[in-house]
Write a structure and sequence with these properties.
The complex is a heterodimer of chains A (800) and B (356). Chain A is of the alpha+beta class and 800 residues long. Helices cover 25% and strands 28% of the residues of chain A. In chain A, helix 6 packs across helix 9 (377-389). In chain B, strand 6 (260-267) and strand 7 form a beta hairpin. Classes of the chains: A alpha+beta (800), B alpha+beta (356). Chains A and B meet through helix 7, helix 10, helix 12, helix 13 and strand 28 of A and helix 4, helix 5, helix 6, strand 1 and strand 2 of B.
Chain lengths: 800, 356
C-alpha cells in the first residue's frame, strides 16, 4: 500500500515531520517499508536547450555540449550521454545545485575541458524513467517550457512524500487513505474528518434506478447499482493522475481512474460497467453454473462454478467475477457514455475460495477477502459521482437513484465487553476505564460503561475485531508497545532450564568429532530421483507433492547421498582431504496405519583421505572414529560384525551392535557408488542412529577401585582362518580371562606364506592383575592355558 | 541359400561358443577381437559379397548382419557379466576384518595426518549459543517432527482451512494421507502445540529446528532453514513479560548495550502480536548498510498466545496466559557473520566451513 502524504492530509493535518510520521506509522503496526521523497533535490534543476554538440579534443567517450540555461548561453557542459540532439530540451543541474542524495554539482575540468554543470538522467533526479526511455539523459517533451524554467514547474512536480506500507492481513481498513489517516490522526491526537468533496451531481429521476436483482444474497449480501449518464472520456485531471501514479496505479482514463481513486481513497472496490454492453441494462447477481465461462478484463477465459458469485447483466450473461474482476465485454472504452456503477460487499470466504481456485489476484480481491466496510458503499458512490462531475467536461454528468439490495447476512457491528482487569492482566499495565475509552474512541470504537469495564461497539470498518482480545490489541497499539513496562515472568525464578539427554549426547558427539578434525556439514533434506539408486540404496522414499524442482522431490532416507554430493562439491573445487559429518533427520515411508513418515535422527560421517595414502586409510579411520565416539559416550559391550549393507563395500562393512540393538554401520562406501557420484578414491563411512545410541549400554557410573599390585602381561599369537572375525577370538579369550583379566588388546596382525592361504596370525596381549596380591607364575600359567583353550574353541591355534 | 549365408550361420554358433568360454576380462578381449574384429572370419565374409547377384547379395548381407548383431549383443552381455564378476572378485580380495581394527588400541581417528581441529557448522553453533542463552534464562529445549499434519502446522494455530493468513507461508506438501493433509512444517510452531497438548504446565521452553517453505533460494532465503521459537505458558503471564524476556535475551545473546523494541504486527496464533527488532549487531546501533542506517534489525515475531490456540489444545485462556516468539537461526547467523549469500550455508565448501 503506497500512501502519498498529500493524499492522507485530505483527512487530517498530519503536519509532523516525515521522520516522526514514519515512526508513528511503525508504532501503529503499519510497517514502513520505504519512504520516497519526491521532488527533493530538484529545486536548482532547470530546463536547458541543446545548442551545439562537439567532440572532446582529448576523449572519445565524452563530448562537449553547449546549452542555453535560460540566459541564451552558451554554457559548456562535458557530457557522457549520447541520446540527444541539437534542439532537445534536457534537465540541467547548474554549478551549486544539490541533487537527490546530497550530491553537489561543482565546476570541474574533464580532460582539460571545463564543465559548468551536469545534464541529468531521470534516475539521477529520482524521477520515474519514461516508458520508451533509452539510456542517457531525460529528454523532455519539445516545447515543454522555455529554457531556464525550473524543472519542477515544467513537469508539474509537487514535492510529496510516499510511504510504502506493509499492511498486515488483519488491517483491511488500512488499505485506503481514509484508514491510514484515521490511525495516524488518532495516534497524533488530531481530528479526523471526511474531506470536502466537489458538489454532487443531482439525482435525476429520468436517468432511472439501475435494475438490480440479487439471487445469491449469501455470497453478495449487499449490492448497490447506480446509473450515471454523460460520463466524460479522455484522460483524468492531472492531480488525480498524479495521485494514482504516486499510489502505484497507472492512470488510464477518467472513468477507470475515478473508480481506482475511490477504492484507494475510501476503501470500497467498485466497478463501472459500460451500460450499452449490459443486456437488459441491469444487473443480476447469482451463483455461477458449472461449465459457464467468462473472459475477464485481463483477457483470460475463466471457468466459473457454483461456489462463485457471478455478476450478470439483466439477461443473465456473466459480466464479472463478483468482487474479483470485471468481464471484458462491458469494459469502459472511449465510446462509453453511460455507466452502471457497482459498489457491493461480498462474503470474504467465498471471495478467497473463488480467487484461489481461479488463481486470480486483484486489488478488489485483496480487499474483499480481508474485509471491506459494509457501510461505505453509498459514500463511495457519492465520491465517484462528484469526482466525475468535477472534471472539465463533466458538467453533463447525471445520476439516477442508487438501487441498494441488502441481505440479512450483511454483517453488523458487534458489541463487545472489555474488562478493565483483563486488559491489565494480559498487557501488564495499570490502565483505568477512562484511559481505555480515550484510546479506543479516536479509532471509531463507541464505548459505554459495561459491567466490568466497557461495552464497545466496533466500527463497521473494523469487523475483524470480534473478540475481547482483539480490543486489547487495539488498546496496546494505541497506548504504545514501548510504554508497556518490561518485566520477567513471576514464575521464572523457580524454573531451572536444561538440555535433555538426547540434546546433550548430540552436543557431545559434535564436540568429539570436531575435536578430532571433522567438519560439520548441513545438507538439504531433499533428494532427486535417482540419488538413492546411485548410492546403492532402496529407492522407496516419501514424495513431495509440489516440489520447486524435481531434484528436490523426495525426502532423504539416508544422509549418504547428500554427503557424497558435498564431497563432490569440494572435490570439484580442488579441495581434498575431506572429513565431514552431519547430524540430521531422515524420513522412512510411513509404517502401518500412520500417515506420517517415520522420522529418525542419524549421525553420518564420510571420510575421503587425500589421494596417494594407504588404500585402507578411509575404512580404518571410519572404524577408529566409531571407537573414539564409543569411548567418549562411555558405550560398553558394543561389537562389529561383518555384514552386507546397501551402499557399502561388501568386504568392508560391519554392523555396530550393542546386545540385540543395531547402533549403525561402519565401513567403506562401495567403489561403484563412489564412482557413480563422480568421486575417486576410497570413502570411509560411519552411520549411527542417534536414538539407538542413546539407549546403548554405558559403562556404569560407579567407581571401581584400581589395584595397587603389579600386572603381568601374557602375549599370545593365534593363527586362525580369515573367515573367523577377530571379534570372535577376543570375545572367547576375554570371557576365559575371568576376573583377573584387566585388559585385552590386539597388537599385531600378520599374514604370510608360512601360515598358509586364507589364514592370519592375531597377536593379543592379555594383562592380568589381582586386587589383593601379586599373581604367581602358577596362576598366570593357568590363565594362559585357559586362554589358549578358549581360543581353540573358535578354531584358533597357538602360533608355533 | 548362399554359401556365405551358411558360413555366417556357422560363424554365429562358433562365435557364441567362443564368447561363452571367456573366463576373465583379458581372455574375453582376445576372443572378442577374434570373433568380431576387423580381421575376423565374419569381417572377411564381406569381401566376398561383390561376387554375388544383387538378390544373393541382399540375402547374404542380411545373414551377416544378423550374425554380427547377435554376436555384438551377446558380447556386451558377457562383458558386463565379466566386469561385474571382476568387480566382485576385487571387492572380495579387498575384504577386511573390521573387528581387527576395532580390537586394536585406538589411535587418532583419522588415520592420515596433517589435519587440524574440525569445525562446527555456523548454523548449529549459532543454535547452540541460542539454546545456551535460553537455558540460562530457565528454559528447556523441546523438539518435534519436521513432517506434520495440517492440524499441527495450521489449524490448531488458529488457521482453519481457507484462512487467508495461510498465504503467509508457501507450503510443501507430502504425498501421504489425504491431499493437503501431510506437510513439511513451515515453522517450529507445531512443537508448541505438541507441548501444550501434553498438558504439562507451566511451560518455559524454546523449540529450535528445521523448517521448510516453497521459496526459490536466494541470497536471503533458503527453502530449508532453521528457526527457534519460545513458548511460555503460566498463570499471570503478561505482554510486559514478553517484552522483558526479549530484552533480557537480547542483552544476554548480543551483549551489553544491545536492546530490543516491539512493533505491532500480525500473526494468526498470537494477539497482541509484535515484530521484534534488536540493535544492529554490526554497527551497535550507529547505522550501517546491514540495518539500512536505522540502527535496528528485524529479528522475528512474537505475541501473546491467542485464546483460540489455547482452546484448540484444551487450556483455559481465562486461567492461563502465555507468549510465544520466534526467529530464523540462519538469518541471525547471516547477519552476525555478514554473510552475503545464505546459499553458502548449504554448499558445505570446506573453505567456508572451516571459518567457524
Amino acid at each position: 500500500m503506497r500512501a502519498p502524504l498529500s493524499w492522507l492530509r485530505d483527512y487530517a493535518p498530519l503536519d509532523a515531520t516525515v521522520e516522526r510520521l514514519t515512526e508513528v506509522l511503525s508504532e501503529l503496526g503499519l510497517v514502513v517499508d520505504g519512504v520516497e521523497r519526491l521532488g527533493e533535490g530538484l529545486a536548482d534543476v532547470v530546463v536547458a536547450r541543446i545548442l551545439d554538440i562537439r567532440p572532446h579534443p582529448d576523449a572519445d567517450r565524452i563530448r562537449l555540449v553547449d546549452v542555453d540555461p535560460g540566459d541564451g548561453g552558451p554554457l559548456q557542459i562535458v557530457c557522457g550521454a549520447w541520446n540527444f540532439q541539437v534542439g532537445d530540451l534536457v534537465p540541467l543541474a547548474p554549478v551549486g545545485a544539490v541533487l537527490p542524495g546530497d550530491f553537489t554539482i561543482s565546476k570541474r575540468k574533464m580532460r582539460g575541458q571545463v564543465s559548468h554543470g551536469m545534464l541529468c538522467s531521470a534516475r539521477e533526479l529520482g524521477l520515474p524513467e519514461p516508458p520508451d526511455a533509452t539510456d542517457g539523459l531525460l529528454i523532455l517533451t519539445p516545447d515543454l517550457a522555455p529554457a531556464g524554467t525550473p524543472l519542477t514547474e515544467a513537469l508539474g512536480i509537487e514535492p510529496d512524500v510516499v510511504f510504502d506500507l506493509d499492511v498486515t492481513p488483519n488491517r483491511p481498513d488500512a488499505l485506503c487513505m481514509a484508514g491510514v489517516a484515521r490511525d495516524l490522526a488518532a495516534a497524533l491526537g488530531e481530528e479526523w474528518h471526511w474531506p470536502d468533496a466537489p458538489p454532487l451531481p443531482p439525482v435525476v429521476d429520468t436517468v432511472g434506478a439501475a435494475p438490480v436483482t440479487v439471487e445469491a444474497g449469501d455470497l453478495c449480501p449487499r449490492f448497490t447499482g447506480t446509473l450515471i449518464t454523460s460520463v466524460p472520456s479522455g484522460p483524468s485531471p492531472a492531480w488525480m493522475a498524479r495521485r494514482l501514479a504516486l499510489a502505484g496505479m497507472r492512470p488510464i482514463s477518467v472513468v477507470v481512474d475515478t473508480s481506482n481513486y475511490v477504492m484507494l481513497d475510501v476503501g470500497q472496490p467498485n466497478h463501472a460497467y459500460d451500460r450499452r454492453h449490459l443486456g437488459g441494462g441491469g444487473i443480476l447477481v447469482r451463483r455461477g453454473r458449472e461449465g459457464e465461462k467468462l473472459e475477464t478484463l485481463d483477457g483470460e477465459q475463466r471457468d466459473l462454478g457454483s461456489g462463485d458469485c457471478v455478476i450478470c447483466d439483466a439477461d443473465g450473461s456473466p459480466v464479472g467475477v463478483g468482487g474479483i474482476m470485471g468481464g471484458a465485454s462491458s469494459e469502459i472504452s472511449s465510446a462509453t457514455t453511460d455507466v452502471l456503477l457497482e459498489c457491493a460487499w461480498f462474503e470474504p470466504s467465498a471471495i478467497a475460495a473463488t480467487g484461489k481456485r481461479l488463481g486470480l489476484s486483484s486489488e478488489a480481491r485483496t480487499r474483499f477477502e480481508r474485509g471491506v466496510d459494509p457501510n461505505v458503499a453509498l459514500r463511495a458512490v457519492e465520491r465517484f459521482c462528484s469526482l466525475l462531475a468535477a472534471v472539465p467536461d463533466g458538467e453533463a454528468v447525471r445520476r439516477g437513484p442508487t438501487s441498494d439490495v441488502c441481505d440479512s447476512s450483511l454483517p453488523a457491528a458487534p458489541r463487545l465487553a472489555l474488562r478493565t482487569r483483563r486488559v491489565n492482566q494480559i498487557l501488564g499495565v495499570d490502565l483505568d476505564v477512562a484511559t481505555l475509552e480515550s484510546l479506543l474512541r479516536p479509532l471509531g470504537f463507541q464505548t459505554d460503561t459495561g459491567p466490568e469495564g466497557l461495552t464497545v461497539k466496533v466500527p463497521t470498518w473494523r469487523l475483524e475485531v470480534t473478540r475481547e482480545i482483539d480490543l486489547i490489541e487495539e488498546v496496546a497499539r494505541m497506548w504504545g508497545y514501548h510504554r508497556i513496562p518490561r518485566t520477567v515472568p513471576a514464575g521464572s525464578a523457580r524454573r531451572t532450564g536444561g538440555l535433555t539427554a538426547p540434546q546433550k549426547q548430540r552436543r557431545r558427539i559434535r564436540q568429539m568429532l570436531t575435536g578430532t578434525g571433522l567438519d560439520e556439514a548441513w545438507t538439504t533434506t531433499f533428494l532427486g530421483p535417482g540419488d538413492l539408486e546411485r548410492a546403492g540404496l532402496d529407492p522407496a522414499a516419501v514424495e513431495v507433492e509440489n516440489p520447486l524442482d524435481r531434484s528436490e522431490s523426495l525426502l532423504r532416507t539416508s544422509l549418504l547421498p547428500g554427503l557424497l554430493k558435498a564431497l563432490r562439491f569440494n572435490v570439484d573445487r580442488q579441495l581434498e582431504d575431506l572429513a565431514l559429518f552431519e547430524i540430521g533427520r531422515v524420513f522412512a515411508p510411513p509404517a502401518g496405519d500412520s500417515i506420517l513418515p517415520a522420522e529418525s535422527e542419524q549421525l553420518a560421517v564420510v571420510l575421503l583421505p587425500p589421494p596417494g595414502g594407504a588404500p585402507t586409510a578411509a575404512v580404518t579411520s571410519a572404524v577408529r572414529t566409531w571407537q573414539w565416539l564409543a569411548e567418549a559416550l562411555r558405550i560398553s559391550g558394543s561389537s562389529l560384525e561383518a555384514a552386507t549393507v546397501a551402499g557399502l563395500h561388501p568386504g568392508r562393512a560391519a554392523r555396530i551392535t550393542a546386545g540385540p540393538v543395531v547402533l549403525g554401520e561402519v565401513g567403506e562406501i562401495d567403489p561403484a557408488v563412489v564412482d557413480a557420484y563422480g568421486l575417486s578414491g576410497r570413502v570411509g563411512w560411519l552411520r549411527l542412529g542417534m536414538g539407538q545410541l542413546l539407549d546403548a549400554p554405558r559403562r556404569p557410573g560407579q567407581a571401581a577401585d584400581v589395584s595397587r599390585y603389579p600386572a603381568a602381561d601374557v602375549d599370545l599369537a593365534f593363527v586362525l582362518a580369515d573367515e573367523v572375525p577377530a571379534a570372535s577370538l577376543l570375545r572367547a579369550v576375554g570371557a576365559a580371562g575371568g576376573e583377573l583379566l584387566e585388559d585385552l588388546t590386539l597388537f599385531d596382525v600378520y599374514r604370510g606364506e608360512r601360515l598358509g592361504e586364507g589364514r592370519r596370525s592375531l597377536a593379543v596381549r592379555a594383562r592380568f592383575r589381582a586386587m589383593d596380591r601379586t599373581l604367581s607364575d602358577t596362576e598366570l600359567q593357568a590363565a594362559r592355558a585357559s586362554l589358549i583353550d578358549a581360543a581353540s574353541g573358535v578354531g584358533a591355534e597357538l602360533r608355533a | 541359400m548362399t554359401d556365405i549365408a551358411t558360413t555366417a550361420r556357422n560363424l554365429l554358433d562358433a562365435g557364441l561358443g567362443r564368447l561363452a568360454s571367456a573366463d576373465d576380462l583379458e581372455s574375453f578381449e582376445v576372443i572378442q577381437r577374434d570373433v568380431l574384429g576387423k580381421k575376423s572370419a565374419l569381417a572377411a565374409l564381406n569381401t566376398h559379397l561383390r561376387d554375388l547377384t544383387p538378390e544373393q547379395r541382399r540375402e547374404a548381407g542380411e545373414a551377416i548382419k544378423a550374425t554380427r548383431d547377435t554376436l555384438t549383443e551377446e558380447s556386451a552381455r558377457i562383458r558386463a557379466l565379466l566386469v561385474e564378476r571382476h568387480r566382485r572378485e576385487q571387492l572380495a580380495a579387498e575384504r577386511m576384518d573390521l573387528s581387527e581394527l576395532a580390537a586394536a588400541p585406538a589411535g587418532p581417528p583419522l588415520a592420515w595426518s596433517g589435519r587440524g581441529a574440525g569445525h562446527s557448522h555456523l548454523v548449529t553453533s549459532t543454535r547452540d549459543e541460542l539454546e545456551d542463552t535460553f537455558v540460562a534464562m530457565g528454559f528447556t529445549v523441546a523438539e518435534g517432527p519436521e513432517a506434520e499434519t495440517d492440524w499441527y502446522n495450521f489449524e490448531a494455530l488458529n488457521m482453519p482451512p481457507d484462512h487467508p493468513a495461510r498465504g503467509m507461508w508457501d507450503t510443501l506438501y507430502l504425498r501421504l494421507g489425504q491431499p493437503g493433509q501431510v506437510l513439511l512444517r513451515t515453522h517450529t510452531s507445531p512443537v508448541q502445540v505438541h507441548l501444550m497438548e501434553s498438558g504439562m504446565l507451566p511451560i518455559y521452553a524454546v523449540m529450535p529446528g528445521r523448517c521448510y517453505r516453497r521459496d526459490t533460494p536466494d541470497a536471503r532465503h533458503l527453502p530449508v532453514f532453521h528457526q527457534i521459537e519460545g513458548l511460555v505458558v503460566d498463570r499471570g503471564i503478561t505482554f510486559g513479560d514478553l517484552a522483558g524476556v526479549i530484552e533480557a535475551f537480547t542483552g544476554a545473546f548480543f551483549g551489553p548495550g544491545m536492546h530490543s523494541r516491539l512493533r505491532p504486527s500480525f500473526f494468526p496464533f498470537t494477539e497482541p502480536s509484535a515484530e521484534f527488532e534488536v540493535t544492529c549487531p554490526i554497527c551497535a546501533g550507529g547505522g550501517c548498510r546491514t540495518c539500512s542506517n536505522s540502527g535496528w534489525i528485524e529479528l522475528g515475531g512474537c505475541g501473546m498466545v491467542d485464546p483460540n490456540v489455547f482452546r484448540a489444545v484444551g487450556i483455559d485462556p481465562e486461567e492461563y496466559s502465555g507468549f510465544a516468539f520466534g526467529f530464523g537461526i540462519d538469518r541471525l547467523a547471516q547477519v552476525r557473520a555478514s554473510l552475503s549469500d545464505m546459499r553458502a550455508l548449504l554448499d558445505n565448501d570446506v573453505r567456508f566451513l572451516s571459518q567457524f
